[in-house]
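User: Could you check the structure of this?
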Amino acid sequence: MDAKRQTDEADRVKRLLALDRSTLPADGGPGFNRLVFASSPYLLQHAENPVDWYPWGEEAFARARAEGKPVLVSIGYATCHWCHVMAHESFEDVEVAAALLRNCIAIKVDREERPDIDAQYMLAAQLLTGSGGWPLNVFLTPEKEPFLATTYLPKLSRGGALGLIDYVERIGELWRRERSRLMQNRTALAAAMAAAVSPAPAGLPGPELLLQAAQQLTALYDPDFKGFGAAPKFPMPVNLSFLLHIHARQPQSAALPMVAETFRALRSGGICDQIGGGFHRYSVDRAWLVPHFEKMLYDQALLASAAIEAYQATADDWYRRFAAEIITYVLRDLAAPPGGFHAAEDADSAGAEGTFYLWTPQELRDCLGDEAEATAAALFDVTTQGNFEGKNILHLPLPPDDFARRNGVAPELFAATLAGWRERLLAVRSARERPFRDEKILTAWNGLMLVALAKGFGATGETTWLEAAQGASSRIRQHLVNPAGRLLRSWNAGAATIPAFLEDYAFYVWGLIELHQATLNAAFLQEALRLCQEMLRLFAAPEGGLFEVGADAAELPVRMQSASDGVLPSGASVAALNLLRLGRIAEDEELSTAGEKLLRTHMGQAGRQPAGYTFLLCALDFALGPPLEVTLGGGNADARAAILRTLGRRFLPALIVRSGPGSGPLRVEVCAAGACRPAAGDIAGLERLLDEVAPRTLS
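Assistant: Sure, the predicted structure tokens are below.
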């Protein structure tokens, strides 16, 4: 993508959204295709392609049936680097457009708006090819059955590998003349897909399964560069949160050292934006140096949340600062006034990947001056040869405190100097061409950000974070709930029509629970309970499971269930924990039973590969207890808030907090493992009770 095209990306989307589309014909007319009527930024990026794109819908499949053609479903997202590359090389090309028109019906899908379509056909791609990724290009029958899949393809064949034109022409020829060859694996693939998403129920195990998962993570741990697995390497904050649960059960285990070392490696690496805060999506190398430069809201939310939990578990202020840097970035660059958060920032700017984040020694010198540049270059490892395409990804070979001591400077003085450098470098960088921002507001990802902000407020008392969480919740209620009360998936430019999926309900309810536990505002609890009941109605599956798509929105060949946790926790895993927590908070046995049934539904798979189900195991950890319940009543608002802050500063995975009678003196009742202690009347009394029933572990 050339620099001018990249510069125009945001303007193009805004221009198309501002267009009076009511004057256009149904196919978009001569200047556009049918994607011009979309609200998704990703679909709008393709609205001026010569390809005769359809959005996902019955119209495209009806045409495929009428013309006897297969369907190409091309899936990506607005901030995806390789999606941009394929768009520029192929989908903007008239020869490619002609080949597609001759041989298939073409559909574009935004995976962030339609995770159900993405998950279904990514599973097919993995079963067909052993791998997946984006852009994902899947060929279907007109009945939506997949039979071939690939990811990025260049326009032309080279080096013995098919390019897109030849690939499409060959599929078209086989479809017309030897369709049976294309269809020979269709039945087996459908059976494999159904088997892959069918849960394996089992009884609830004891804590031994948690320890097995921890052992598997230990085996995956990278002792040299920290984190888990080999390149490409993802931060995996869900694993870090799970290990903190293990630390709470076994303070002498290796869980906390793995968490601490991984957080510090992430903060020092190029995967961390050393100037503006926030984290890129993943690292292409083991050492966390070279990232794939997208910034996703969900990564920020989950990393900040895990860091707050580490702060609660250790009382080490370093983790609070880690979370605060992320949240500062989100509030500055992803906030969507009057409330809520945009989805992501692109990897590309000024015509290349990562340009916005790269520096040369001369650029440092121009900003900081000669003397400071030498020190800053040593700190951030900036060299004339660079570490990425002739320029430098800033990273920290030594933590700033160690760097200061090595150079004979007091760490606290150097911290102030470094803060000044970052402020000046950020100001200079802000004048550069920014990466494209995908301004969708996704219910699920905003729910995760609610979790981080509410936990952060609970642990620190930072009111700005609470206000941001409340603003996001208000935005969802106003723009992402239909008149019937049904939650919706995505909002952009005034449009929200896609029914929410299980993960939307689960992640948003999780955020509401955290808001309630940090404030005891009953409105958050009531909304969480309402949405949980609706979730159980819409997504109910046999034997207590939950489908990923609601009964009112199912339109794919396989209705999927899954509780495996990866970069994101699964909707089912989060829903299980929500049900268990709400059951105890509201003293609703039916919700608790539903949570236990959901756990049992997936325990067969979790028992075989526990490290792939770490958030589900966090829910199991809560179910296993021992329970810890605090009832807070009486006193004035300030006294109750102080008690909530005292609770919020501790990592107490089994804790639930309830409101007690509002009148009279402050009264804090603590019940643990089925036994209630005499009520406390102040913070000191509460601290003594907590030290008895749940002592803080600082090992």
